[in-house]
User: Fold this.
Amino acid sequence: MGSGKTTVGIRLARKLGVTFADSDAEIEIAANYSVREIFEKFGEEDFRNGERKVICRLISDRPAVLGTGGGAFMDRETRERLKERTITIWLKADINHLVERTSRRDTRPLLRQGNPGEILRQLAETRYPIYGQAAIIVETGAGPHEKVVNNIIWKLNQYLAAETAQERKKQHNQCSGK
Assistant:
């Protein structure tokens, strides 16, 4: 929440020549309610169930950059599907940056329940260990989004090169009887 996933995601998709999808926007279209209204009318559990279905649909299409809400990766089933079918990237930001960025709009249901800084700190304590399971972790900060995009592309290339090397080693071991 506030890490820049939409802005960075759009720019990354453009550079990679693929489409960008935002799971929250897709949920709003599917439900005909805003995320805030879904939380208020139906609760978080119903939102997460809908989110899981929408994300499954989005990751079964052609290659794309997908921005998910902050809680999506916390759902075990959604997280496992994302890890199986995508290359997950965590845009890790300093809590003070997140507080500043999220204070610009009053559209985040979880932050409306008290002191946003304290809520973000508590969320970080709970979520960061889970977010750390992402295949790629990229630090974001106050710098330009383009720098973050370039860092993602660099790390993505490193990740793919390592994955290719692992696959080659596996094939070599199979051919040599190891």
Summary: Strands lie at 19-22, 64-67, 89-93, 136-140. The longest strand covers residues 89-93. The chain has one domain: 5-175.
